[in-house]
Design a protein that fits this description.
Length: 698
């Protein structure tokens, strides 16, 4: 059944999944419509496909299966449509002026002659063009959003599809729905496959099999791998696609010919992963073999001078590491907490800057970069910021700088927390270096691997092609910390230090282990610690220097419940704080939040230490909600690296509360070696125990 009409009133709309209840007016009647209708506003004219259903409480309703927006038929409908707030710069007053001025020609002007809008008072030529562009872009996007809903593809993903396929997106998908595997993020192949087969696609359709193969490899990549064994892939695809092994192998050959996948020694790669791996290997080898023009003569003498001036005594391993950095264009320094990596970095900076060389510091996350800045006294940037990944060009369009054409202006590049770096970021980094640039990679190989694909640091060390210095001595100051001692004991398979095991009276009381089996008691401990106990103990403020981490998302001690509970105690409802409920989540001003997926498109600006703009907020970045605007339906978040970004309500599925985070997310913030005034609380839900790590004198 098909209906065409206008949205008269929105009774209810879920901001997360866009489930909508609205009053809808056709030429014959008014009827309540229900269904998943993203971006629907009062005044929109729609063509709906669905069926009449009877609700036990609300009576007869029209249940929408699919929808598309159509151009408003009447001038009053057009005015309401323009005034609904979806076109930036056009409110009710401006909408009335536009319609009153152009009447039946309004749509034609908006589409084809936008410069005429500048004849209206308050609209200059720049604003006129912007209104037209927004109108056309929104119109095309709305069509695509409505179409993709049946594939289970949400608003943000639909935007990505639109950016990649443009105005012909629907036509392209109609021809080959499997194209969504290439242009959308994390789509469900099985759902696309079901729809395609219901529309007559045969099981042996070549595009279906090829996309199924790429989907299968992608599954491996989302779990951190860069490749999959060929026979395992074939076995998986036979079950997924219900086709013969021969058909799968034929399409593997086709994909290889098309340079979409690569086979090497019975392993299959997506081409992008293989290319990245190869480029990293080749570029690193070029750096290693390049003439060492940054070598400092009399390095031993220089080190003695620094030791005397700074009143420090370097260990033999630290000297060896610094000398290795001096002798080699590429060098890896690895070791656990308290083994002197930061001291090495500071001395390398001093040595090379004394020689007039430019040293650049970087790290994979905002937190890691901030920590590097604090410990060295020299600015460190995130790798994304340094390499300008996701930079905005002059027209506010996404632009990633080709670093092979514009290498970094640096003599020495020091990259910290390398265990967190995935294959693609490493590829960007090596592309950005001149042949004579010195590259120093620093990290703890015993940390969890990167969230993205690849295990760069470990693989580079295992290759034995790069000079690697492993630090294993815990320095006296660090040895006073139970945190550091216990982290090394864990790596060695030993238990935590017990009170009776401790002979050193100088040990800091920076580590506490509380053995508790009752989950409610554990929860109470976490609340009291965060809500005042730690503040009374060491003037710790939750929003500045306390983090709760847990192994799981579900259960009483999972992130979902912990975040709800901690928000209640730490950021309770106040008249002065605006909030917005989306689904069962309440977002409130001053809430701590975290980005949970990479978004290269979101625009941000930073005013401290200097004004700059760009785009891209990445998985694991922490921030605070500083403003909620219910009129514009947006939320402003200030991240820990000082960048500020606006999120529409529809995009808040990329954000979750971060009062408590999972251990895997916590690796991106280096909880083992916290700031000097930080505290970390770890709940172990699996074993129903609570562990508290504190560090006030690291």
């Amino acid at each position: 059944m098909e209906l065409t009409g206008e949205v008269k009133e929105i009774i209810y709309q879920n901001e997360v999944n866009s489930y909508t209840v609205a009053e809808f007016e056709t030429d014959e009647e008014e009827i309540t419509i229900v269904g998943y209708l993203p971006f629907i506003n009062v005044g929109d004219t729609l063509k709906l496909v669905g069926k009449i259903v009877t609700h036990q409480d609300y009576g007869e309703q029209f249940k929408v299966d699919t929808f598309e927006k159509t151009m408003p038929k009447s001038l009053s409908s057009l005015e309401r449509y323009l005034a609904n707030g979806t076109i930036k710069g056009v409110g009710p007053a401006t909408a009335k002026k536009i319609v009153d001025t152009f009447g039946e020609e309004t749509l034609h002007v908006l589409k084809f002659e936008p410069e005429k809008l500048s004849n209206i008072k308050g609209i200059n030529k720049e604003k006129a063009i912007a209104i037209s562009e927004t109108f056309l872009e929104n119109w095309e996007l709305w069509q695509i959003v409505g179409y993709l809903e049946k594939f289970g593809i949400g608003v943000q993903n639909a935007k990505n599809v639109y950016k990649k396929l443009g105005s012909n997106a629907i036509d392209e998908i109609e021809k080959n729905p499997y194209i969504l595997i290439d242009v959308a993020n994390n789509v469900d192949f099985k759902k696309i496959d079901k729809i395609a087969i219901e529309n007559g696609t045969s099981l042996d359709y070549a595009e279906r099999i090829k996309c199924g193969i790429k989907y299968a490899i992608n599954i491996a990549c989302t779990n951190g791998h860069c490749r999959v064994q060929k026979q395992n892939l074939i076995t998986f695809c036979r079950e997924l696609l219900n086709v013969t092994e021969e058909e799968i192998e034929e399409n593997i050959i086709t994909l290889k010919v098309l340079n979409q996948i690569v086979e090497e020694n019975d392993w299959l790669y997506l081409a992008a992963f293989y290319t990245a791996e190869q480029n990293i290997a080749e570029k690193t080898q070029v750096l290693i073999q390049s003439k060492n023009i940054k070598k400092i003569e009399n390095i031993k003498k220089e080190l003695k001078t620094i030791e005397k001036k700074s009143d420090i005594e370097l260990s033999e391993k630290q000297k060896e590491a610094i000398e290795a950095i001096n002798e080699n264009n590429v060098c890896i320094i690895t070791g656990g907490p308290g083994t002197g990596k930061t001291t090495i970095i500071k001395i390398v900076i001093e040595l090379y800057e004394k020689q007039g060389k430019k040293v650049v510091l970087c790290a994979p996350t905002g937190r890691a970069a901030k920590r590097m800045t604090e410990t060295t006294g020299k600015e460190a940037k995130t790798l994304h910021r340094l390499l300008e990944i996701g930079k905005q060009d002059e027209e506010n369009k996404l632009e990633t700088v080709d670093r092979e054409l514009a290498p970094l202006d640096a003599d020495v590049v020091i990259a910290d927390e390398m265990s967190m770096v995935d294959i693609f970021i490493m590829n960007y980094l090596v592309k950005a270096l001149y042949q004579g640039t010195k590259l120093v990679l620093v990290g703890d190989v015993d940390q969890l691997p990167s969230v993205g694909p690849g295990s760069i640091l470990k693989d580079m060390i295992n290759s034995e092609k790069i000079t690697t210095i492993t630090l294993n001595k815990i320095f006296r100051q660090a040895a006073k910390s139970k945190i550091i001692l216990n982290s090394h004991r864990v790596n060695e398979g030993e238990n935590f230090l017990k009170k009776e095991d401790i002979e050193n009276e100088e040990l800091n009381e920076d580590f506490f282990y509380i053995n508790e089996i009752n989950q409610e008691k554990i929860l109470h401990q976490v609340i009291t610690l965060c809500n005042g106990r730690l503040k009374n103990y060491g003037d710790y403020d939750f929003f500045k220097n306390i983090q709760v981490i847990t192994p799981t998302k579900k259960g009483m001690l999972g992130t979902k419940e912990l975040n709800k509970t901690l928000q209640k105690y730490l950021n309770p409802l106040q008249e002065s704080l605006l909030e917005k409920q989306i689904g069962d989540t309440i977002y409130r001003e001053q809430d701590r939040v975290m980005q949970i997926k990479n978004n290269y498109d979101i625009f941000w600006e930073r005013t401290n230490p200097e004004y700059e703009t760009g785009s891209g907020v990445f998985n694991g970045e922490l921030g605070t909600i500083i403003k909620i605007d219910d009129i514009e339906k947006v939320v402003k978040i200030k991240f820990d690296d000082e960048k500020e970004a606006w999120y529409s309500y529809q995009d808040l599925d990329q954000i979750e509360h971060s009062y408590a985070i999972t251990i895997h997310k916590a690796q991106r913030k280096r909880v083992w070696c916290c700031n000097n005034d930080s505290s970390t609380i770890i709940t172990n839900a699996a074993y129903k125990k609570l562990t508290i790590y504190r560090n006030d004198k690291s």
